[in-house]
Amino acid sequence: MEMRTKLALEKGSRSQKSGAKGERRAALYLRLHGYRIIERNWLFHRKEIDIIARKGEILAFIEVKSRTNMNGVAPQFSVTSEKRRNIIFASKAYIAKHNIQRTVFRYDIIEVDLTKHLPFSGINHYENAFSE
Prior knowledge:
Blueprint: H1 3-11, H2 14-32, E1 36-44, E2 47-55, E3 58-67, H3 75-78, H4 81-97, E4 104-113, E5 123-130
Parallel strand pairs: 3-4
Antiparallel strand pairs: 1-2, 2-3, 4-5
């Protein structure tokens, strides 16, 4: 398990613990749907990408939104324009740092309903949730 996720689960605030649980469930969901997790909690100049995953020729930069109350704003609207810019900025740095070419890039959002106790119930994956 990623060290930051482990620390959040053990010692983090309620929000950090919820986020870590959601990211862990999202990563497992992705693996079971044919994705290979490349990075978790990748940071570049204080801008974080929750999950970077590959499936075939697609490299997905994924924001995970964990929920304990599903009456709020839809996840694709809860990722602010500033957060989108930060994810795009960090993804470009990741692409440049790893000299990635001939790959389709995508920005996804995964919503995890933490009130559902089965590992894969309450997970919604929004592919191409936003673009540059």
